[in-house]
Each structure stands twice: as C-alpha cells, then as structure tokens.
Amino acid sequence: MTEQIVEISREIYDHRNPERSVKKLEGLNEEVVKAISEEKQEPEWMLSKRLNALRIFLEKPIPKWGPDLSTLDFQKIRYYLKPEERKNMNKWEDVPNYIKKTFEKLGIPEAEKKALAGAGAMYESEVMYHNLKKEWEEKGVIFEDMDIALQKYPELVKKYFMSDCVPINDHKFAALHGAVWSGGTFIYVPKNVKVTLPLQAYFRMNSPRGGQFEHTLIVADEGAEVSYLEGCSSPIYNENSIHAGCVEIFVHKNARVRYHSIENWSRNTFNLNTKRAVVFENGIVEWINANFGSHTTMLYPCSVLKEKGAKSEFIGIAYAGKDQNQDTGHKVLHLASNTSSTVVSKSISKDGGITTYRGLVHIAKGAKNSKCKVQCDALMMDNKSKSNTIPYMDIKEQKVTIGHEASVGKIDEEKLFYLMSRGVKEEDARKLIVSGFVEPISKQLPMEYALEFNRLVELEMETSLG
Questions:
Q1: Residue 373 in contact with residue 406, Cβ under 8 Å?
Q2: Which of 62, 160, 235, 448 is deepest in the core (most CB within 10 A)?
Q3: Looking at 248, 280, 312, which one is the last position of a domain?
Q4: Mean pLDDT score, 138-160
Q5: Which is it for strands 225-233 and 256-264: parallel, antiparallel or unpaired?
Q6: Which of 78, 67, 77 is nearest to 323 (CA)?
Q7: Is residue 89's pLDDT more than 70?
Q8: Do residues 180 and 220 lie in contact, with contact meaning Cβ atoms separated by under 8 Å?
Q9: Residue that is last in its domain, among 259, 280, 301
Q10: Pairing of β 184-189 and β 142-145
Q11: For residue 423, what pLDDT band results from cuts at 50, 70 and 90?
C-alpha cells in the first residue's frame, strides 16, 4: 500500500481577500431585514416571516446554559455582505477572479470534476456558483441556490421552509436565522430517484465582523436517495463574526439522506447553527458532523423519527484548542414504534480547550420496540483541557432498548511507549493514536473529504505538539 503524503498549510483556510462587498448591512433592526428581503425581491410571505422572526429574536433571552456569549455584540455584525455582481452562476469562468481563486485553493472545482453530481459555492451572503450535472437535471432533481429556488419554486419552498422542521420560534438563534437568512442550498429529489454521486456546497466568510446565515433545505421524496456535503471556513480577525445557518432535512417514506459537514470556522467566529431532520416511515437519515474551528460552537443536530421504522445514525467529532469551547451533541426524538437510532460522539481537547457532549434521547409513549444506543468518547491531550458529558434521556415507553456508554481519557501511555519502542518519534506516535481515535468519522467520508478531514486533524495536532 502506498502512503499518501499531504502537505499541511493553515494558509489554505486563513487567507483573506481585500474586502470588496458592493452592499453592506450592519446592525439588527427592521430596516435591515426589509432591505435584505427587498434586495432579493422576495414574496410578501417571506418578508412577513422574516419580520416575525426578528420580533421573536428580540424577545427571547440569551441562553443561560452552555457557553458564555456575552462578548458577541449583535449590533456590530454585518448581516448582509454582497460581493460583486454574478454574471452566470452556472459557469465557473464567470465567477469574479478573486473569489474563484479562493475556492480553487479549497479544491472545489477539482472535486466537482472528479466526484460530484453538482456543486455550489457561497461567498459572504451570496451564492456565486451553482451547477447540477445534466444527467440529474433530466431525472427531475432540483439543486439550486436557496434564493433562486424561492423565485423558481415558491410553493415548494413555502411548504417546507421553517415550518414543521425548524419553526422560527424554536429558539433564539433559529429566530435570528429566520430574520436575516441569505443564500444556501435547496435540494429536491423526486420519488425513487437515487443520486449516486454526492452534491456539495461550500460556504466561505471573508470580511471582519461578518455574519453568514445560509439555509439548507433537503427534501428526499418517497424512495429517493441523496448524499450531500457541506464545507465551511473563514479567515481569522480580531473582531467577532457569527455563523447561524440552518439545515432542514425531510426524509420521506423509504427514502435515505446522508448529510456530511466539516465546519472549520476561524477562532473569532461564534457558530450558533441549527440542524434537524424529520424522518417518515422506514426512512433513514445519516449524519457525519465534524467541528474544528470557531471560538464558540453551540450545535446539536436533531433527528425526529416521526413514523414507524424511521432510522437515524449520527457520527460526530468536536475539536477544541486554546480559547475554544465546542458545545455539541445530538438530539433524537422517537415518536413512533420500531424506530432506531445510534449516536457516536467523539471529542478532542487540548491547550485548555473545552468540549461538551450535550445530548437528548426522547422516546414518546407508544413508541414501542424503539432502540437507541449512545456512545461518547473524549480524548484530552493535557491537564489544562476540559471534557463534559451531559446526556439526558426522557423515556415514556417501557418496551424499548436503550444503551449509553461514555469514556474520558488521555493518550494511552502504553500505546505511546510501544510505538516509540518501534522507532516512531513521540510526536508522530501521538498523531497516529489520534488518527485511530477519529477513524470512525474519516472512514464514513468519500475519499476526497476523508483526506480533507485527516488534513485538518493533522494540522490541529501539529499546532498542539509544536
């Protein structure tokens, strides 16, 4: 077997372009919300939803549990940043050159050529490129920029957008998203169509004090299948930024959706994201979630197993270094009989970083023969770091099977000694042990994204170990 050597450079993620936004909307008020809606020429019902969401956001208090959000000033954030005008969203050569170079550094065009059914690229508050290969378009698959989808498929979007899955009053940051959302991805897969190659979108923030609020809406109709990958990154500044995106997934009867996400926001970003799937009869949702960057993350993807036989599988990893607080986990709601779920959560903390698994398992009365297994593993690289496990189980039915395992530990000194006794340097031995720890996540990713994932792990370990 030939070992692949990947050169590691933080500059891939931390490079920044000079700010060239042609429209900037700062502060949070009714005028800003109306201006965003007017800029996008939205229907009246969407503006009404936005204004209602703003009212809810202003009324709801900052959460008192979880990480400290006191240094985030919502009035200093730029809620809409419009880059240069797009010429043709379907042609890569028409993307402004400085934006094109950014995404080329991140490998987006190459990935589209080799391994994707379609790709999208969002820069600041607007999607700059979006394209679906003709083969899938002919089968009725819709893969659009969320703003464009609202114009082209208004009734379909209205049916699903922030109603049954993530309503605007769900929590404070869902309301914030509902007020100022911009860009994102809309996917609809018709009945019995199986998209055999992944679809991908990459979200990039560039400016200081920026906010990104993309909306991802995935609908897999009966018997349909689709795999979707999201990547996110931003350069580091001295001023805080915010990411408060939203992902809504609808998995209809006998359908299957696999959602991958690698979030690598800079260390000045507050990542307050919301992700949820509603799964109908015998449907399957699979989550693969990795969080590396951000100053503070509060993210708890949720599976609502609404009808009998629905199934959810979640694998997640959180990585916290110096001055990082990764508060993540998974929620699963068993609302019908014979539903099943598995949750595998891993975390790594070093240099005083804090990781927390915050999970919920709810089994409703009548959800007989439901099964759920939760496994949480935490690896601490030093004595300064912290790891917390806060599971909550709300079981209303007796005929169920529930399992929960949790472990917190440091690098096994015996394994370290064994590798060093075979001539492996200590630094490399530690990297090998960490790679083994995160293998359950990397082996679930397509090859190109597994390389990206392993590159990020190695980069963080390199920083940690000097």
A1: no
A2: 235
A3: 280
A4: 96
A5: parallel
A6: 67
A7: no
A8: no
A9: 280
A10: antiparallel
A11: confident
CA-based nearest residue to 349, from 386, 323, 299? 386
195 in a domain, yes or no?
yes
Q: Is residue 220 part of a domain?
A: yes
% of the chain exceeding 90 in pLDDT: 56
The per-residue pLDDT for 445 is: 67
Q: How many domains does the chain have?
A: 2
- What lies within 8 Å, CB to CB, of 238 at 6+ separation is 208, 268
- The pTM of the full predicted model, rounded to 2 decimals, is 0.88
Largest interatomic CA distance in the chain: 69
Cβ neighbors of 93 (< 8 A, separation 6 or more) are none
Amino acid at 168: I
Residue-range definition of the domain harbouring residue 275: 13-42+76-280
More confident residue, 460 or 407: 407
Mean pLDDT value of segment 405-425:
74
Strands 370-380 and 400-410: parallel
Structural domain includes residue 52? no
pLDDT at site 3: 36
Q: Which helix (H) or strand (E) holds 373?
A: strand 370-380
pLDDT tens digits for 320-344? Answer: 988 999 999 999 999 999 999 999 9
Token pair of 114 as six digits: 């080799």
Residue 245 shares a structural domain with residue 100: yes
Residues with Cβ < 8 Å from 431, sequence gap 6 or more? 458, 461, 465
* Cα of 60 vs its chain's centroid, Å: 24
Could you tell me how far CA 279 lies from the centroid of its own chain?
A: 18
Per the prediction, the chain carries an average pLDDT of 85
Q: How far is CA 18 from the centre of its chain?
A: 26
Structure tokens at 138: 């002919």
Co-location of 275 and 422 in the same domain? no
Query: Do residues 253 and 220 make contact, with C-beta atoms less than 8 angstroms apart?
Result: no
With cut-offs at 50, 70 and 90, classify the pLDDT of residue 465: very low
